[in-house]
Structures are given as structure tokens and as C-alpha cells.
Write a structure and sequence with these properties.
Blueprint lengths: L9 H44 L5 E3 L2 E3 L24 H57 L17 H51 L7 H29 L5 E4 H18 L3 E6 L3 E4 L1 H17 L6 E9 L2 E8 L6 H6 L21 H11 L3 E6 L5 E10 L5
Parallel strand pairs: 4-6
Antiparallel strand pairs: 1-2, 3-5, 5-9, 6-7, 7-9, 8-9
Helix pairs in contact: 1-2, 2-3, 3-4, 4-8, 5-6, 6-8
């Protein structure tokens, strides 16, 4: 049998602690008042007793002369709690005084309980208001920390309000974002610069390997090694090109223009149909005109990577479905491909850089693991998103969702 433990938020616990402190303080105050009133009545009854014993003659005491009292006659002895035989006590006065004190004390006790309950309710309301007001600004920091990713490190809290510990926390968080932004920017610049610098020597190396092969100057026993080196060089060039695309996608779009995704998809299909035929992959395209505002080169790269990924990681004699259209205000490019079964954990990592998936998805052995990462980067840069999910029966469904618009209202 399992037991369920109640878990309260920090705000609730803080409010309950404040309420408890208020209630305990109020209860202490009322208890002190109750004890003081009891003592005052006991002192008054004692004074009345002495005064009544003195009859009509005033009796001097520490606080001055005490007023005597006179009644019709003495009650005599036998009153419990009062002087014994031989003492003259005017009982009617003492009984009235005792009744009065008990009535007041009992009424004070009932009133104190009611006041304590009302005070507890008011204290709880004030405590919850104070806790919410105090923690709302911390909630802003928490929300920002949850939402900010490496894609939008330029966001800042700039927390308003008094210059207190919470504002200091917000300013510290902003300083951390400044440092992270600089670090990520430096990393992206390094990748872009290094990739750019590596392209020239790799191009030279590829040319130096291709020319002897084309001219037939390579001995037969060396030709397999030369061709392996050429394939490795071509693979390195593809990797560098992908890294440059990824770095450019993260850098953002400086200038945008009207891009018809139907035209982009048509050009991509024309270029990649030979690859699909070589792998005996059937392409079923459903394309309609849909416009977005963006960088045509980056958008071409995104659509190309989606289709190329669907062909490259498809099964032999498989099928690829390409759909381009509009869903509400968004423009959507969807590529659905057959292939191996993919669990949710694998699908969640497909857009990570250099992740190539299970071996069944890399049979071709020519991927560099950046295709979907580049698409994700380009989608984010254009205010969109990349959606991935496993296809029932095996394969993958990749959706590029971008904000669309109508050219007539541009």
C-alpha cells in the first residue's frame, strides 16, 4: 500500500508559516490579556473582602484608604473560601463581586476565541497576499530561465522594482546570460571561420586526387587507396558545408524576401530524383503554392535536407511523401518516409548535431549527422519549428512549420 505525501509549493509554505506566526502572536496576546484581567478581578475581590470586613470604617492600605461597605446584617460563618468562624463577612457583596468577575472572565474567554479565529482568517489572507507579492518577481526569473535557450540568449530580464535581493538575483541572471551569449557567439564564429579556412585546402586536395585518376596516371595497385582518400575528402567537404550552413542558420537572417516553398520544393525534387531512383525510392509529391518571408538560400537548404534525409535513410524500394501547403496561418513542408521503427527516445535526438541514429538509418554511410540539426536551426531563425515523430509501421515524419503570409497583403 502506497502513501501519498502532500507537497506544498514554497509560496504556500511561506504563507502558512506567516499565518502560524501571526496566530501564535495573537493567541499569546489574548492569553496575556486574559491572565491580566483575571489577576485584576482577584485583586479587586481581595480588596472588597478587606473593605467589607472593616464595615463602614475606611481601612488604610498600600494603595490608599479602602472603602468600607454596610449591609443589613452579617451573614456569619460558613462561606467557603472566605474567612472562617468569628469573622464578619458581608457575603452578598462578595457573591456579587465573584459573580461579576466570573461573568466578565467567561465572556472575555469566548470573545477571545472568536477574535482569534477571525484574526487567523485575516492573517492567512494577508500572508498569502504577502507571499504572492514577494514571490511574483522570483516567478519571473523562473519563467525566463525555463523559456530561454541557446536560440535566444539575447533576451534579458531587466527586472523592475526596488533594489533588493530579488532584483540582485535578476541582475545576476542577466549577467550570466551575457556571458553565455558571448561564449555561444564565439563558438559559432570559430566553427564558421574554421570551416571556411578548411574548404580551400580540401578543394585543392580533391583536385590533386581527381586529376591523376582522370588522366590514368595512377598505378592500378594504388587506385583503390586514392579513391578511398577521394571519398574521405568529399565527405569532409560535405561536413564543412554543413557546418557553414549550421553556423549561418544560427547567425540569423539579415535580409528576407518573398519565397514560394512550392518552387523551392520543385527545384529540390529535380535535383534529388536521381538519388531516389538509384535507391529505388518512390517519391509522391503534393505541392501547392505557399509563401513565407525568409532567406531563399537557407530555406532551400532546409527543404533539401529534409528530402535528402528521407531518401538517404529510407529502405530499399521504399516510398517518400512530400507535402507542401498551408495549415491555418502557417506554411508546412512535410516529408514522410518509410524505414525502420523509431522509438520516441530516438526521434527526440535526431535533430542533435552529429547524431546519425541507429545503424539501420545509416546504411548508406555518407551522412554527417547535421541534416536535421541544420533544418532545426533554420526553422528557429525564421520563427518556425521542426517537428519530428515516428511513422506508424516504420519510418519518420518530419514537418517544417514556418509563419506564412499572403503576397497580396505583404
Amino acid at each position: 500500500m502506497t502513501t501519498t505525501r502532500l507537497r506544498f509549493s514554497f509560496r504556500t509554505r511561506l504563507a502558512l508559516i506567516i499565518t502560524l506566526v501571526f496566530v501564535l502572536a495573537g493567541a499569546g496576546l489574548l492569553l496575556a490579556q486574559f491572565v491580566i484581567v483575571q489577576q485584576l478581578f482577584a485583586s479587586a475581590i481581595h480588596v472588597t473582602t478587606i473593605s467589607c470586613q472593616a464595615g463602614d470604617t475606611p481601612v488604610s492600605g498600600p494603595a490608599g484608604p479602602l472603602t468600607g461597605c454596610s449591609v443589613a446584617g452579617p451573614v456569619g460563618e460558613g462561606l467557603p473560601g472566605y474567612p472562617g468562624p468569628g469573622d464578619v463577612v458581608y457575603g452578598s457583596v462578595l457573591q456579587q463581586s465573584t459573580f461579576l468577575s466570573q461573568s466578565v472572565v467567561n465572556g472575555l474567554l469566548a470573545s477571545s476565541i472568536v477574535l482569534l479565529v477571525v484574526f487567523a482568517i485575516v492573517a492567512a489572507g494577508i500572508a498569502f497576499w504577502l507571499a504572492r507579492r514577494s514571490l511574483d518577481r522570483i516567478g519571473e526569473v523562473t519563467s525566463a530561465a525555463r523559456d530561454i535557450s541557446e536560440r535566444d540568449l539575447d533576451r534579458r530580464l531587466d527586472l523592475p522594482g526596488p533594489d533588493d535581493e530579488i532584483k540582485e538575483l535578476g541582475d545576476t541572471f542577466d549577467g550570466m546570460l551575457d556571458r553565455l551569449h558571448l561564449a555561444f557567439a564565439a563558438q559559432d564564429r570559430f566553427v564558421a571561420n574554421a570551416s571556411h579556412e578548411l574548404r580551400t585546402p580540401l578543394t585543392t586536395t580533391r583536385a590533386a586526387l581527381e586529376i591523376p585518376l582522370q588522366q590514368g596516371d595512377v598505378p592500378a595497385k594504388l587506385e583503390p587507396a586514392i579513391r578511398r582518400a577521394l571519398r574521405a575528402t568529399e565527405q569532409s567537404e560535405r561536413l564543412i558545408t554543413s557546418l557553414l550552413s549550421l553556423a549561418r542558420g544560427k547567425a540569423g537572417v539579415e535580409e528576407t524576401e518573398d519565397v514560394d516553398l512550392a518552387e523551392v520544393a520543385g527545384d529540390v525534387l529535380d535535383d534529388l530524383r536521381p538519388d531516389a531512383r538509384s535507391r529505388r525510392v518512390t517519391i509522391d509529391a503534393s505541392v501547392e503554392e505557399v509563401h513565407v518571408d525568409g532567406d531563399p538560400t537557407l530555406l532551400d537548404r532546409a527543404v533539401r535536407n529534409l528530402v535528402d534525409n528521407g531518401i538517404r535513410h529510407n529502405m530499399r524500394a521504399g516510398t517518400l511523401w512530400l507535402r507542401v501547403g498551408r495549415e491555418g496561418p502557417d506554411a508546412v513542408v512535410e516529408v514522410e518516409s518509410t524505414g525502420a521503427e523509431l522509438d520516441a527516445e530516438t526521434v527526440a535526438t535526431l535533430a542533435e548535431p552529429f547524431y546519425r541514429g541507429p545503424s539501420t538509418r545509416t546504411a548508406a554511410g555518407t551522412g554527417v549527422g547535421l541534416g536535421l540539426a541544420i533544418v532545426d536551426s533554420i526553422a528557429t531563425t525564421h520563427g518556425g519549428r521542426l517537428e519530428l515523430r515516428g511513422r506508424e509501421g516504420g519510418g519518420l515524419i518530419a514537418r517544417l512549420v514556418l509563419p506564412g503570409y499572403s503576397p497580396s497583403i505583404r
